[in-house]
Amino acid sequence: MFQPTVAVLRPDDNRIVDAVEYLQSLDVSPIPDPMLTIDSTGQVPKHADYCIFTSETGVDISATAGWEQRETTVCAVGDQTATALRSRGYSVAVVPSTFTSAGVVDELSTDVDRQTVELARSAHGSDELVEGLEAAGAIVHETHLYRLQRPETAGRSVSFAVDGELDGILFTSPKTVEHFFQIATECDAVTALHRGLEETVVGAIGVPTERTVHNNGVTVDVKPDTVDFTRLAEVTVNQIRGSQR
Question: What is the pTM of this model?
Answer without folding.
Answer: 0.81
